[in-house]
Design a protein that fits this description.
Two copies of one chain form a homodimer. Chain A contains eleven helices and no strands. Chain A is mainly alpha-helical. The longest helix of chain A has 29 residues.
Chain lengths: 246, 246
C-alpha cells in the first residue's frame, strides 16, 4: 500500500532545502501543493473516466461488450479510490484537491461525447493512453510514495486488447469507418491538449512539477511544449495500433 | 469461491431422481434450466444496476456523494462478475442466460429514470432492497454452490447507511420532499412488481423455482402472491427507514 503519510514534506525544518535534489526540488510546501494538485487532477480524471465509460457501456452491441467496457470503468474507479486514499493520507480533503479540475475535465467530456459504440471505444483507448503517458511524464518528479502509487495505477491500466480487436474488426467489416474514427481521434487529442493547456496555464505549481520540479525558475514553456510533443507522438502510435491515421 | 462446475446436474443418469429431494426437486435438467434463468436475471439485474447507479452519480451534489454512489455501482458490477463466472461454470453462455431478461429490466429502468439526485438515491436503496429480498426468497431453493454464491452477494450488499442519512437530512432541510419521494417509492415498487409479474408469467421454470421448487405441480399463483406480499411488506419497512410513507 502507498497510503503512508509523508512527514518529510510537511517538516518546516526542511523549508531551507531549496533545489538540493532534482526529484524533490523547491520549497517542500510548494512541492506538496503541486503533488496534491497532481493527485487531484488524476483522481478527478479517474472518476470522470468511470462515469463516461459506464455511460458508453450502454451503447454496447452485445452484453459481453457491455461487460468489457463496464470492467474498464470499474478499474478506473478503483484507481480513483487509491488516489483518494493517498490524498487523504497527506491530510488534504480529496474533494478540495479535485475541485480545481472539475470544470476543465467536464468540459473535455462535454466536447467529446461519443456518438456511437466505436467512438466510445476509441475514446476509452485514446483517453486511457493519454492518461498513462501523463502519469509517466510526472512519475519521475514525485516523492517515493506518490510515485509508487502512480506506477501501481499505471501497471493496472489495461483491457486495451479488447478495444484494439473490436475497432480493427469493425474496420475490416466496413473500411469506411476508419476515416470517421481517424477524425474522431484527432478531435479527442485536440480537446485533450486544449484542456491540458488551460489547466497548465492556471496551475503554476502543477506546471512546474510537470516540467521537472519546482527548481525550474518560472514556467518553462519550451519544456512544456516538448512534453506535449512526446504525448502527441505516443497518440499517433496508438492510433496506428487501432488501424487509424492520425 | 463458488465457481466449481456441477456435474451432478448435468448427469443424465440422475434424470430419474424426480422429487427425491425438496432442495433439488423436479427433473435435474428442468431444475438446472431454472437455476440458469435465476442466475441470468440476477446477473442482468446487477449490470443494469451498475449502469443506472453510475448514471445517477452524475447528479451528485458533491464529489463525495458522487464517489459514494459510484462505489455502490462498482459493488453491483462485482456481483455481476461473480454471477457471470458461476453461469459460465455451469456450461452456459452468460449472455444467453441474461438475454430473456433484457427487455423487462430495461423497461423497468426506462419507466423509473430518476429526475434528480434524491430520486436516484431512493431508487438505489429501494432497488437494492427489493433485489436482496428476491435473493432471500429464492436462495433456499438452490443447489448448495448457487446458494453460497447468492448468500455471498447478499452479504456484500451495503452502502445503505449513506443513502438513509442523505435522504433523512434532505427531508429535515425541506419537509416537502418527503411527499414527492413517497410517491416516487410507490411508483418504483409498482414498476418492479409489474415487470416481475411479466417475467414470472413468461418463465415457467423460474416461477416454479420461486414458489418452492419444481416439485410443485403447475404454477402456484397463490404462493406467488404471498411472495409478492412479503416483498411489499419489506419495502414498506424500508420506506419508513428513509422517513417516507409508502
Amino acid at each position: 500500500m502507498t497510503e503512508g503519510t509523508q512527514p518529510g514534506n510537511a517538516d518546516p525544518a526542511a523549508d531551507t532545502a531549496v533545489g538540493h535534489d532534482a526529484a524533490h526540488a523547491g520549497p517542500p510546501e510548494a512541492a506538496r501543493a503541486a503533488v496534491v494538485e497532481l493527485l487531484g487532477v488524476l483522481a478527478y480524471g479517474e472518476i470522470t473516466a468511470f462515469e463516461r465509460l459506464a455511460e458508453d457501456a450502454k451503447m454496447a452491441p452485445t452484453l459481453d461488450d457491455k461487460a468489457a467496457l463496464a470492467a474498464m470503468a470499474v478499474a478506473e474507479f478503483h484507481h480513483f479510490e487509491r488516489l483518494r486514499a493517498h490524498i487523504a493520507s497527506l491530510g488534504v480533503d480529496p474533494a478540495d484537491a479535485m475541485e480545481p479540475f472539475v470544470t476543465p475535465l467536464d468540459e473535455f467530456h462535454r466536447h467529446t461525447a461519443p456518438a456511437d459504440w466505436l467512438e466510445g471505444l476509441v475514446k476509452a483507448y485514446v483517453g486511457d493512453g493519454i492518461a498513462a503517458d501523463f502519469y509517466r511524464e510526472v512519475a519521475a518528479h514525485l516523492d517515493p510514495d506518490s510515485r509508487a502509487l502512480v506506477e501501481e495505477v499505471l501497471r493496472d491500466t489495461g483491457h486495451s486488447a479488447f478495444v484494439v480487436d473490436a475497432v480493427r474488426s469493425a474496420i475490416e467489416r466496413d473500411p469506411r469507418v476508419a476515416g470517421r474514427l481517424a477524425l474522431w481521434g484527432r478531435r479527442l487529442m485536440g480537446e485533450a491538449l486544449s484542456q491540458a493547456q488551460r489547466v497548465a496555464a492556471e496551475r503554476d505549481a502543477l506546471s512546474a512539477l510537470l516540467v521537472g520540479g519546482l527548481a525550474v525558475p518560472g514556467f518553462d514553456l519550451a519544456e512544456m511544449g516538448r512534453m506535449f510533443t512526446r504525448i502527441t507522438e505516443a497518440h499517433t502510435a496508438r492510433m496506428a495500433t487501432l488501424g487509424l491515421a492520425s
